[in-house]
C-alpha cells in the first residue's frame, strides 16, 4: 500500500486499458487514481469501467480514486464539401452561420457566442492552432478573416479563441447529463474543462455539492487572470497543458505551469500536471529523454500528481507508461534538492488549532526522527493540512469514511486506510500502532506522531498531538 513516493499518478482509461486485468496491472505499476474521459464512450461503457476499478480496489485492498473528466464546451467548425480543404497563407476565409458544407472560401461556425466575443485584429485558431486566422471584420453572423498560417483543415475541427472570455456556460447539456450519471456512480472527483472564471466553478459546485470533489482544469488564458479566486473555489486544479499550449504561446506554458503549482501549494490545494507527459509512449515502449525531464521538473516543482492521457488510454504500452512515471517520481524524490525545493514554497496556515498541530507534527517528527505521522480524519481537511506541510516523514491517514480515503488518493504523500474510528484515547494509540505495523510504516521501538480530534468522530476538531512508541503490537 505504501508507494515509497509522495507524488501521485493519474492514469486515463480507454480502449487499451478498460478491463479489470489491465486496470490491476496499472494499479500495481503505480497508478493511484483513474481518469474517466467523458468525451469518449457511452454511459454504459463508462459504468463498466467504473465497476472494474472498484473490483480491483476490493481485490487489492488499495484505495483507488476515480476522476470523471467532463468534456466542457467544445467549439468546432462545420463540415466541408469533400471533407477537407487547403487554406493558403494570405487568402481570405469566412466563417458564418450557414450550415451548408464549406469550401476553401468559407465554412460554418455554429457558435454565436464567438461572434459576440471577438473583434477586428484578434486571431482564431483551428485544429489545435495548426491553422491561424486574423479577423478582418465581424458581424452578428459572419467573421471575415485572413489566413496567416495555412494548411489542410477537415470536418469538425476545433476552434480556439485566445485572449477572449466567451459567454459560454461552463456546463453544457451533455456535461449535465454526464454529471448526473457519474455522481450516481459515485466518482470521487469531477474535472471541469475550459474554466474561464470563478463563476464556472461555483456553478458546478452548486450542482455537485458534497457528492464529489471539484477539480478546475486550467487551460484557458482567461482563467489565469482569476487564478487565486478559481483555486479558492476548487478542491484541486489541473495544469491542462493541451489547450493552454494552443491559446498561449508555447514558451509561456512552462512559466504558467510553475505559477499555478506555486499558487495552489500556497493555498493548500492539490495540483495536477497533465497532457503529453510521456506522449511518445503511445507508440514507443520507452519515453524520450525530454519527456523524462518534463515529468521530473513537475515533480521537482512539488505537484501533487502527474497524469497520463492517451499514453494509458489508447497507447500500445499503458502499463509501461505508468511504470516509467513511477520510476521517475521515485528517483526525483530521492534527490536532496527535491526536499529543499519543497521547503521553498511557504504555506500559509490559518490561525486554527488544526493548522498549528499539523505544522507542529512535522517539526516534532523531524526532531524525534519519527517513522510516520498518523492522521485521523473524517472529512479529509486535517490530512490536507498535513500534506501542505510537505514533511519528510511519511504520512498515514486513517479515516472511517471511504469516500474521504478515495478523494485523498491524489494528494501528495497521503497513504490512506479506511478503518473504523477510534473509540477512546487508548484505542486511538493502539489502532495507529497496529496499522503502522500491518502496512510496514513502522517496526518495534519506532516513534510515531499521531494527530486526532476529540471527541472522536467530530469532523474538523483536530486538537490532539500524541507521541507514541511501537511496543508489543502484532499485525492484525
Can you describe what's shown?
The protein has helices at residues 20-29, 43-60, 112-117, 173-185, 198-208, 221-224, 227-233, 241-247, 253-267, 289-300, 310-313, 318-333, 336-344, 353-368, 381-388, 402-407, 425-438; strands at 8-13, 33-37, 65-69, 84-87, 92-96, 106-108, 123-126, 131-138, 142-149, 151-154, 159-160, 189-192, 213-218, 236-240, 271-274, 305-308, 372-376, 395-399, 414-418, 447-453, 462-469. Strand 7 and strand 8 form a beta hairpin. Helices cover 37% and strands 22% of the residues. The chain has 476 residues and is an alpha/beta fold. It is elongated. It has three domains: 8-72 and 170-338, Alpha-Beta Barrel (TIM Barrel), CATH 3.20.20.60; 84-160, M1 Pyruvate Kinase, Domain 3 (Beta Barrel); 353-469, Pyruvate kinase, C-terminal domain (Pyruvate Kinase, Chain: A, domain 1). The protein contains 17 helices and 21 strands.
CATH superfamily of the largest domain: Phosphoenolpyruvate-binding domains
Beta-strand percentage? Answer: 15-25%
Residues in helix, %: 25-40%
Overall spatial form: elongated
Distance between the termini: 15 Å
- What is the CATH domain class of the largest domain? Alpha Beta
Low-confidence stretches: none
Tell me the count of domains: 3
Number of strands: 21
CATH topology description of the largest domain: TIM Barrel
Q: Note the total helix count.
A: 17
Q: How is the largest sheet built, in terms of strand order?
A: 1-2-3-12-13-14-15-16
The CATH architecture of the largest domain is Alpha-Beta Barrel
Mean pLDDT: 94
Gyration radius, in Å: 24 Å
Helix/strand structural class: alpha/beta
Major beta-sheet overview: 8 strands, parallel, barrel
Amino acid at each position: 500500500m505504501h508507494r515509497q513516493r509522495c507524488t501521485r499518478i493519474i492514469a486515463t482509461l480507454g480502449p487499451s486499458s478498460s478491463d479489470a486485468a489491465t486496470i490491476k496491472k496499472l494499479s500495481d505499476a503505480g497508478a493511484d487514481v483513474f481518469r474517466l474521459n467523458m468525451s469518449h464512450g457511452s454511459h454504459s461503457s463508462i459504468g463498466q469501467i467504473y465497476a472494474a476499478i472498484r473490483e480491483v480496489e476490493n481485490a487489492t485492498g488499495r484505495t483507488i480514486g476515480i476522476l470523471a473528466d467532463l468534456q466542457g464546451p467544445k467549439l468546432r467548425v462545420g463540415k466541408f464539401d469533400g471533407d477537407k480543404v487547403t487554406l493558403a497563407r494570405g487568402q481570405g476565409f469566412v466563417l458564418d452561420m450557414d450550415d451548408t458544407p464549406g469550401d476553401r472560401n468559407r465554412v460554418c461556425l455554429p457558435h454565436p457566442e464567438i461572434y459576440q466575443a471577438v473583434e477586428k485584429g484578434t486571431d482564431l485558431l483551428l485544429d489545435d492552432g495548426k491553422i491561424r486566422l486574423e479577423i478582418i471584420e465581424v458581424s452578428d453572423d459572419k467573421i471575415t478573416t485572413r489566413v496567416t498560417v495555412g494548411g489542410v483543415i477537415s470536418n469538425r475541427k476545433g476552434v480556439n479563441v485566445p485572449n477572449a472570455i466567451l459567454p459560454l456556460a461552463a456546463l453544457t447539456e451533455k456535461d449535465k447529463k454526464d454529471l448526473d450519471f457519474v455522481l450516481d456512480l459515485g466518482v470521487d472527483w469531477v474535472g471541469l474543462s475550459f474554466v474561464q472564471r470563478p463563476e464556472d466553478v461555483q456553478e458546478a459546485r452548486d450542482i455537485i455539492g458534497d457528492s464529489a470533489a471539484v477539480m478546475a482544469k486550467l487551460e484557458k488564458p482567461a482563467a489565469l487572470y482569476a487564478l487565486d479566486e478559481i483555486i479558492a473555489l476548487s478542491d484541486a486544479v489541473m495544469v491542462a497543458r493541451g489547450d493552454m499550449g494552443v491559446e498561449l504561446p508555447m514558451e509561456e506554458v512552462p512559466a504558467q505551469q510553475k505559477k499555478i503549482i506555486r499558487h495552489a501549494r500556497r493555498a493548500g490545494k492539490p495540483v495536477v500536471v497533465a497532457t503529453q507527459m510521456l506522449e511518445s509512449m503511445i507508440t514507443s515502449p520507452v519515453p524520450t529523454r525530454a519527456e523524462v525531464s518534463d515529468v521530473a521538473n513537475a515533480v521537482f516543482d512539488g505537484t501533487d500528481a502527474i497524469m497520463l492521457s492517451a499514453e494509458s488510454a489508447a497507447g500500445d504500452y499503458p502499463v509501461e507508461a505508468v511504470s516509467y512515471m513511477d520510476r521517475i517520481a521515485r528517483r526525483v524524490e530521492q534527490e536532496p534538492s527535491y526536499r529543499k525545493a519543497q521547503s521553498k514554497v511557504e504555506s500559509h496556515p490559518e490561525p486554527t488549532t488544526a493548522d498549528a498541530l499539523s505544522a507542529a507534527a512535522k517539526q516534532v517528527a523531524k526532531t524525534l526522527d519519527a517513522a510516520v505521522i498518523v492522521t485521523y480524519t473524517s472529512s479529509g481537511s486535517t490530512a490536507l493540512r498535513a500534506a501542505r506541510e510537505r514533511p519528510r516523514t511519511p504520512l498515514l491517514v486513517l479515516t472511517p469514511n471511504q469516500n474521504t480515503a478515495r478523494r485523498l488518493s491524489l494528494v501528495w504523500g497521503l497513504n490512506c486506510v479506511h478503518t473504523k474510528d477510534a473509540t477512546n484515547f487508548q484505542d486511538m494509540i493502539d489502532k495507529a500502532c497496529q496499522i503502522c505495523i500491518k502496512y510496514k510504516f513502522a517496526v518495534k521501538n519506532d516513534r510515531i506522531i499521531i494527530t486526532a480530534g476529540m471527541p472522536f468522530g467530530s469532523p474538523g476538531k483536530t486538537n490532539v498531538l500524541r507521541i507514541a512508541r511501537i511496543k508489543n503490537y502484532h499485525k492484525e
